[in-house]
């Protein structure tokens, strides 16, 4: 950068001997060395320019990718709650868009600062060396234009911030549209979505154009400075030449330096605009990096072992809305305990508290007598295998999806798990068997097949505590039968907590707990609860009529 930048200063310096010795004094011998010197400077400038661009770009790219990796690592450690408050599109835009905006600017700023600062200093040196009064005149416009320059910087930062936020909204919308494509189509919402997207894109457009206009205005201000400078130097310096106090070489050298000076100055001002834009991105990156998880391992974690699950007088609320009010129950070791009750009663909340995706406000949640908050998050979560309503498959093969249960599992273990969970039954019909791709979010599989893959994952995981969140709720009777059988094999001998909507699935549970509004209203075995004729019997009767 220094070589490339300094080359300009040397060139403008060379103009003086060129004029005074060759053109004015008529010294033919000098013409050769001056010509070669100028040619040499160009070659040197080309080589050093190439080298520094490659270097700066690769540094910029490495920094960006390292930053992206660090942001993701940080995000992975944040509470589940953070991802409810911040839409995926917004986070994607921060990890991808903001880091890229930063990279482009950082590279440009580095190059400009390294190279153009040297150019500017060397050119100013030449100007001062020729005549300091002329040099002072060249910068006559600067003081007047300081204020507009500062105002422009603030404006660019504000508009850039709004543009980045709008970009996040666009990504969020796209994410929602692509994930919700089926319901958009069946509800014929294509036009509605398209119009809404159009409005959001327009919002982004107007902020971005404002930011770009602000950036473009900065070099324009520099041009005005240049115009005033040239005017001053021409009027004053021109007189001195005519009067014979200065040589033509002096004037040409000065003029070359001044003409060359305003280009890097313009670039520098334009980079300062980009830096303001990048500052807006940087603020958004810091906002992610400054977020801290609330749910963390205690400083001195206790060992935790599988055992009885016990809730004692647990209270939990989302903001001001109480969800659980003094919930107490026990799920015995090695037994199947079912949680039933109307939707919204707090059944899934129980799972969240057990795995510490959320934290209780008061009361005790213990496993084998140890409070979940006393154990390290790693140890605690190692106790559980979870099969939820949504099988959460990734766009990989069936085998790879099963492997997520335990990353170091062998092929044989994966095949055995697939067999136990009745995955083999449908996978065998595919030409590629377990190597069949499941599509984005498992879209190439049916609901029942997805659930069976999720169960195979839990089988492979072989965790002592099993949490089942209505895994058969969305299935037809035949699939339900197969999945039920697979679940029965899985839960055999394990402490299992199962959320169930269809009461048919809990008949054989060792204990059924009926929740209403965050409280236990009844508990016992199926036959006893039916005989009692209370809340459970009413639920059962209601379902019997529904199913006709
Ligand atoms: P269930 O599993 O019994 O259907 P949940 O435990 O999922 O019920 O939810 C209990 C209540 O908590 C519901 O009223 C629901 O609206 C509320 N709720 C669940 N998640 C959140 C959340 N992230 N923010 C605010 N309220 C929530």
Automatic annotation (TrEMBL):
Its main location: membrane. Keywords: ATP-binding, Cell membrane, Membrane, Nucleotide-binding, Transmembrane, Transmembrane helix, Transport. It comes from Algicella marina. This is ATP-binding cassette domain-containing protein. It comes from the Bacteria. SMART domains: AAA. The chain crosses the membrane at residues 22-47. It is a multi-pass membrane protein. PROSITE patterns: ABC_TM1F (PS50929), ABC_TRANSPORTER_1 (PS00211), ABC_TRANSPORTER_2 (PS50893). Residues 309-542 form the ABC transporter domain. GO terms for cellular component: plasma membrane. GO terms for molecular function: ABC-type oligopeptide transporter activity; ATP binding; ATP hydrolysis activity. PANTHER family: ATP-BINDING CASSETTE SUB-FAMILY B MEMBER 10, MITOCHONDRIAL, ATP-DEPENDENT PERMEASE MDL1, MITOCHONDRIAL. It is found in: Cell membrane. Residues 1-277 form the ABC transmembrane type-1 domain. Pfam families: ABC_membrane, ABC_tran. InterPro entries: AAA+_ATPase, ABC1_TM_dom, ABC1_TM_sf, ABC_transporter-like_ATP-bd, ABC_transporter-like_CS, P-loop_NTPase, Type_1_exporter.
